[in-house]
Design a protein that fits this description.
The protein is α+β, with helices and mostly antiparallel strands and 106 residues long. The protein is 44% helix and 16% strand.
């Protein structure tokens, strides 16, 4: 997390550290938070990081705040691991998971 804070002073405005089933930390220059990852049956973790990034960027493009972007990222990554192999996540799963993700300010 300290290294992520150092990156913020160099070039990035937001740093995300994914922790698999333990969720993720999202850090900005002024704040940080932890996003929980709902417990699900993991079928494959291939592409979970890509899904995290895709969920985050999709929400950002829609104008969501960074906390909601983080929530979408975790939901997309979690929905992704519920699929076999490299199958895309199901949007219905993502929307259902959005409701159970908790965000805790650090």
């Amino acid at each position: 997390i300290l290294a992520a804070g150092h990156r913020l002073t160099q070039s990035a405005q937001v740093v995300a550290i994914t922790l698999g089933e333990k969720g993720a930390f999202v850090i900005t220059k002024n704040e940080a938070w932890h996003c929980s990852a709902p417990l699900v049956q993991v079928k494959s973790d291939v592409g979970a990081g890509d899904s995290f990034l895709g969920g985050f960027l999709t929400a950002l493009e829609r104008g969501e705040d960074l906390i909601n972007c983080s929530r979408w990222a975790i939901a997309a990554a979690t929905a992704s691991v519920m699929q076999e192999g490299t199958a895309r996540c199901d949007l219905r799963d993502v929307k259902r998971l959005l409701k159970v993700i908790t965000i805790t300010k650090c």
